[in-house]
Amino acid sequence: MSNKLINYLETAGLNWMVPVVRLCRGEDAREQATELFNKAGLPLIALLVFLLVWSVGASQVKTSLGVLPGPAAVWQQAVNLVDEHQIERAKADAFYQRQEVRNAAKLERDPTAEVRIRDYTGKPTFIDQIGTSLLTVFTGFVLASLIAIPVGVACGLSPTLYGAISPLVQIFKPVSPLAWLPIVTMVVSAVYISDDPLFQKSFITSAVTVTLCSLWPTLINTAVAVASIDKDWINVGRVIRLSWVTQVFRIAIPAALPMMFTGLRLSLGVGWMVLIAAEMLAQNPGLGKFVWDEFQNGSSDSLGRIMVAVITIGIIGFLLDWLMQTLQGLLSHQKPAGH
Fold it and tell me: Is residue 32 domain-shared with residue 137, that is, in the same domain?
């Protein structure tokens, strides 16, 4: 049982908990304590040193908005942002409750009366904008994967196709999202026309920009991984007359999964960085817009709020990478590098 738990922890990237499990089952205490200190204690000490240096150094930096906020001030702003979210949600609940009471009274007077519920139009909170950014980046990432994986597999299986597409990949791969954004904005505005749109244009613009910038790592890694498969495997598939589709799903993709997931991890990381920049430049809803709005606001709390957003962006980026590492371990049955 404990061996299975250790395997699950290693697959999930929670290696620092493995010594605890081994201690509980009676293994050498000194050895496991040393391993626990190396995997959990040292990172914790490094974090505490960073917070100390930040706290001391921040007090020495004076900006036009006041002293650079230290950890305590940033934490207070984080608490304030959560409180603001709760207050806004309470206002929304009260808004909908008033409508329900009003509609109930209207139906009581006239059972055939037409009633409707209006949407709450309050200002999005910091928590709301986190949700918007996550939805946008996952939409762009999924679209990029749906394009990159099939094209990458096809290129890996066909050197001719790979040679044809390679120049396009090399040309478009280094293009900045700041260059793509104006083009995408104009194309979406011209093509996405509807009286009752399912998605906002700003959402489509950000998602497409993420797609265009994040598909290349997955495409390249998938193509290289498939091209590197032992040719004997492909030949065996042909000998036993497997269809091309069966060869792809039973031989090519399983063999290419480790490198493919490396590409997916890189793509998701690129997509997250691209999204924040796109939201700042295009003023699309999300964390990027929150940072820009606070910068323009210029209040005494703005620096602390911006730093909360920066830390949040970093933590979410770390969690997204951890999620992809865990999926790689579960699906490819191979521990990713860094676990």
Answer: no
